[in-house]
């Protein structure tokens, strides 16, 4: 398999972490959306991540990719295949993904749009939504994890998003804020799957 996209993207990183946790061998091509022509060979809209399967089929969108990886490892899937646990973990993962979407939008507003064209009320709304998402996730930490006292996809995605925010826009999650989420990130950072994919090493 080939994973397309750099780990500076929390959406790429959550896929990379999941691949490592499942012990799936893959080649990492750390392309960014700035590498438009190359990325579009794999992803028609030039979006990352994309995962090239062994047979050449390409999956795009991190949730679709992870659903496939979970299906391959149904006996130990990070998101259960059925039942109330699945719904709870999907809800938490969706919250983390939405927080990540708002962070990415805020980052582009600050970096890609000329300062003279930035819409301050929109940027402030995005920043507020990021903080609200992190607060909600902080409140859900239970027994060291987000659900069930064990590592799930909700934890993988939340840590990928938190680490990306602190790498790119630390003012949205300064050190000392969100102590439970910070402890989760620090603890999981010791695992090889997280250490190998940290955005600082991208």
Briefly, what is this?
The chain has 202 residues and is mostly helical.
Proper CATH architecture of the largest domain: Up-down Bundle
Beta fraction of the residues? 5-15%
Instruction: Provide the succession of SSEs.
Output: EHEHEEHHHHHH
Low-confidence stretches: none
- Give the CATH class of the largest domain: Mainly Alpha
Instruction: Tally the beta strands.
Output: 4
Structural class: mainly alpha
Distance between the termini: 19 Å
Strand order of the largest sheet: 2-1-3-4
The CATH topology of the largest domain is given as Glutathione S-transferase Yfyf (Class Pi), Chain A, domain 2
Helix share, percent: 40-55%
Biggest sheet features: 4 strands, mixed
The dominant shape is globular
Radius of gyration: 17 Å
Overall mean pLDDT: 94
Query: Helical stretch count?
Result: 8
How would you describe what is shown here?
This protein has 202 residues and is mainly alpha-helical. Helix content is 53%, strand content 6%. It contains eight helices and four strands. Strands 2-1-3-4 form a four-stranded mixed β-sheet, covered by helices on one side. Helix 4 (83-111) packs antiparallel against helix 5 (120-140).
Index terms:
Glutathione S-transferase Yfyf (Class Pi), Chain A, domain 2; Glutaredoxin; four-stranded mixed β-sheet; mainly alpha; 4 strands; globular; 8 helices; single chain; 202 residues
